[in-house]
Amino acid sequence: MDQPVSCHPATPQQSTPEQTMTAFTAGLWKQNPVFVMVLGMCPTLAITNSVRNAIAMGLATTFVMASANGFISLIRKLVPKQVRIATYILMIATSVTIVDYLVKAISIPVYKALGAFIPLIVSNCLTLERAESYAGRNPIFKSILDGLGMGLGFTFALTCLGTVREVLGAGTFLGFPLFGPNFEPWVLFLLPPGGFITLAMWLLTFTLWRERAAKRKKAREAAEQIAVEAA
Amino acid sequence: MNESLSHIFVDALLINNFVLCVFLGMCSFIGLSGKFSTAWRMGVSVMFVIIVSSILAYGTNILLVRFHAEYLRIITYIVIIASTVQLTEMFIKKNSPSLFRAMGVYLPLITTNCAVLAVPLFQTSRNYNFIQSVVFAIAASGGYTMAIVILSLVRERVELSDVPNLAKGTALTLILAAILSMAFMGFGGMGNGE
Amino acid sequence: MTGNASQMIRLMAAVSLLCGLLIVGTEINTSARIRHNQEAIMRESVAQLLPGIEKQIIYGIQPSGELVILPNVETPGPRFFAGYDASGKFLDVVIEASERGYADVISAMYRYSPATRTITGFQVIDMKETPGLGNKIGSDAGFLENFKQLDATHPIGTVKHGAKKNPWEIDAISGATISSRAVGRMLQKSVAEITPAVQRNLDRIQRGQ
Q1: Which end of chain B is more exposed for a tag (fewer CB within 10 A), N or C?
Q2: A163 close to A199: Cβ distance less than 8 angstroms
Q3: With an 8 Å Cβ cutoff, is A164 touching chain B?
Q4: Which value does ipTM take for this structure?
Q5: What is the pTM of this model?
């Protein structure tokens, strides 16, 4: 009963430059981890009550994803199926421990603001999902790009939420007051319910945009079809 | 902080509910709260894993501190959790195939449930002793179960309502969670007037 | 099967070794910088309460009540900061305090004047209170007025907004009673714990020894 060393499909074919770039850009928009794949919810709701925290968290996660993806891709052919998840988690946990020290060394106020959520990047379903479904099957460079793309897309999503919550909830952006001293901030947005509501609103907005884009594309294709048939 | 057991319990369960106030365990909360049967099964599995890993993590932390290896904390905790989940899965599979069929799919997901990793991390950073840690684990996981079960019941009701297609699914769940979270804010400040 | 098992073990061992090396390497390279950052933040917080401070001495209070000079900020235990200006003259003492507020622990520092036994400054260092409500304890001008001349000879207490009658009382922020009360409690406890040792050893502290 010889278990194959890796149950992944055969080595992928030659990658064109477009394909390689797609590995990076997919995570930014089309497969945005928060708005499309609905992964990584915990930090999205918890760390977005200010833009600074959102960006910091996003970048920390990006670092973890890129480095963990890189490592995992490096040893993907050597890891037997049974210990696959354990090994991936081990490497992600190492990345996260490193990021924990790095953030503490860069800025202690940011470290305190992010709090317990840096170690929790380990259990961010996004990191493990990308590790398993992409880094485990693809070459190193593409895996790192995927990690970067997903991480930056995640950062983008967090920033969207952070902007709404900070502007409405505190009247500031990155700490700079936007409105005069008479502005009465909508404090709800800084509190937990505000997190849920903001995410719901952004999700609705993105879904609406994507549906409209898909409808327009279909209409365009139908028009082209008619034009071709008429010719 | 020298907190009384009842204070730890009420705080983790209601005032700072793990799901609705601290935002832990979100992915499973949003994804698996569609049906009551799914929700309570997930809740119970999570409770079991949290309590067991919390106890193991407490013991492991003592060793880590003795060997001045605090930097290994994250890794050892996640290994404990992954192992607990694995062992639980094997145990259920062997002893109750029917239970495994009903619940088995959700068990591997518990490893990536941030609530499960958060409990040992919080109990370590707050320097809880053994009894405090166990009480904290029970209350935190109980809070998770309570939140996911309540949400599943609400969602089952809402299934029968007329909701615009665009909002069905995740967006609606989030809005319902927002309302639930606002309700839980009412618990704030309980037991704080010393 | 055996071949596979030993291969697995070798791989896990190699991976664990690599991970361990990476972590330890990072820790070694960042710990100095982290310590530096923490000390810088402490220094800044103390300087905000003691303008004009050029030198600080961290005194630790031993269980026997004796004072001992601490080498760095990390040593735990009851302690306080003594500040001196450029000419070596003793300014005042800064003490840390913390207490559980509404959401989580509130950490603060306050300036204590041993000559008059009053608190003459207060600063919140860290808090997770409700934005717009509880977290006003850090910024509300009316609330901070309480700490310009707070009498520490009587146990400090927090009273309802507007009901302050005695110089050892703190006027709470209306709508943020719990956070305000936490501040009162932390100051009362801290004063009881630290100031007796300050007063007993005032001579030594003023000389900066």
Answers
A1: C
A2: no
A3: no
A4: 0.84
A5: 0.82
